[in-house]
């Protein structure tokens, strides 16, 4: 009766020894281990990932063993479980002699992609070996070859193979990468890595600084979100467009200084406010109360009249900001804007003045200036309703 456990252990030991001797380049030892059934053993012995001895000969860089195996009917087209041929594995392990042998003797392998969708030139870019890339490029010159997850340039970038990355750019690789694929544009990737050298190289290669990924995220948005200040300033300098998403990313991540940088508050022009000959605070307050009541009743025209009478008796910031709100509700944004600015001049601490100015500007389709004013109001009070107005305004900035 056959001892199955002993037979399994014997087979396992044969695999271990054969792989070890192949990697060591000991051809005689390999022959002795596989004798007499060379062909069967060469094509049947494999480790857990489906790699056969021919694959290990390639990764070890032993051409003499590889040639002997193929002469003894090892299948040169066999693939491991990841879809790698012996050529692909030689590239991963940077074995140039094997690469040349495979490409010249079995040119069909140059066209194969593994299960990750990687061609030989993709794999070379990932390893960063420029000599290997140049040899492969002499046979297959397309350095912008697509895969599901990008071009060779993008693989060099993701694996941070700087020399390879710069070399591919110098060769004329498309700095915008594989648009529309699963992987973001190179500039977005580089920004997310805070990879300053790559960002500068891509911009200098005339990439599209505003090219978004499939979710609409740009490099500037990434720099804004994570407060990568050097990249942020560089991208702005080189023409990156600030949109609402960019500002919102900084706001949601509590990058107050970034939001301040992106939403500078416009200075109020000199506004001539003619002083009153007589101030009547009590009368003014009564008119304000009446104005508030009219506003609550949605009688905006009457509210404007009452606030105007209050202003005629006392130039208080709150009266102007209240009348501004009434003008907004009465669809008179230009009048609302002027009142809000006067309210801001009279009392820079009146957060409602900034809020009304922002709302008036929003009605006038001046979205970014509107957001700047609302942002100022929000910094002065943490009112959740103002937060909602701010976020809503940002979403309208293209």
TrEMBL record:
Gene3D superfamilies xref list: Ankyrin repeat-containing domain, Tetratricopeptide repeat domain
Name recorded for this polypeptide: Ankyrin repeat protein
Repeat region (ANK), residues: 49-81, 116-148, 215-247
DNA-binding in keyword set: no
Tagged with keyword Transferase: no
N-terminal signal peptide: none
PROSITE patterns: ANK_REP_REGION, ANK_REPEAT
Keywords, alphabetical: ANK repeat
Source organism of the structure: Blepharisma stoltei
A Pfam cross-reference name: Ank_2
Database matches in SUPFAM superfamilies: Ankyrin repeat, TPR-like
TM stretches of this protein: none
């Amino acid at each position: 009766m056959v001892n199955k456990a002993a037979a399994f252990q014997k087979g396992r030991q044969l695999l271990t020894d054969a792989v070890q001797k192949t990697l060591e380049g000991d051809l005689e030892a390999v022959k002795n281990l596989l004798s007499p059934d060379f062909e069967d053993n060469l094509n049947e012995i494999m480790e857990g990932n489906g790699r056969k001895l021919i694959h290990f000969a390639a990764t070890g860089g032993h051409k003499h063993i590889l040639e002997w195996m193929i002469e003894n009917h090892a299948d040169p087209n066999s693939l491991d479980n990841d879809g790698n041929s012996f050529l692909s594995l030689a590239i991963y392990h940077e074995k140039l002699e094997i690469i040349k042998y495979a490409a010249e003797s079995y040119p069909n392998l140059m066209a194969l992609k593994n299960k990750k969708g990687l061609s030989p030139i993709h794999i070379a870019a990932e390893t960063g070996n420029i000599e290997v890339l140049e040899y492969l490029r002499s046979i297959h010159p397309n350095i912008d070859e697509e895969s599901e997850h990008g071009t060779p340039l993008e693989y060099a970038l993701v694996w941070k193979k700087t020399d390879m990355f710069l070399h591919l750019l110098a060769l004329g690789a498309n700095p915008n990468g594989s648009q529309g694929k699963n992987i973001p544009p190179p500039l977005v990737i580089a920004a997310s890595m805070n990879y300053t050298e790559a960002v500068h190289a891509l911009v200098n290669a005339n990439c599209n600084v505003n090219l978004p990924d499939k979710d609409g995220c740009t490099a500037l948005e990434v720099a804004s979100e994570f407060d990568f200040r050097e990249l942020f300033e560089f991208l702005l300098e080189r023409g990156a467009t600030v949109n609402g998403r960019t500002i919102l990313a900084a706001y949601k991540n509590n990058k107050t200084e970034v939001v301040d940088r992106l939403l500078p508050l416009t200075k109020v022009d000199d506004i001539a406010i003619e002083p009153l000959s007589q101030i009547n605070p009590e009368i003014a307050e009564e008119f304000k109360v009446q104005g508030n009541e009219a506003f609550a009743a949605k009688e905006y025209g009457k509210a404007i009249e009452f606030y105007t009478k209050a202003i005629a008796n006392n130039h208080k910031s709150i009266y102007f900001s209240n009348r501004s709100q009434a003008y907004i509700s009465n669809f008179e944004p230009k009048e609302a804007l002027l009142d809000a600015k006067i309210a801001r001049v009279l009392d820079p601490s009146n957060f409602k003045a900034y809020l009304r100015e922002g709302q008036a500007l929003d009605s006038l389709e001046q979205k970014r200036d509107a957001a700047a004013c609302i942002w100022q109001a929000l910094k002065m009070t943490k009112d959740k309703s103002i937060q909602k107005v701010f976020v809503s305004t940002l979403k309208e900035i293209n």
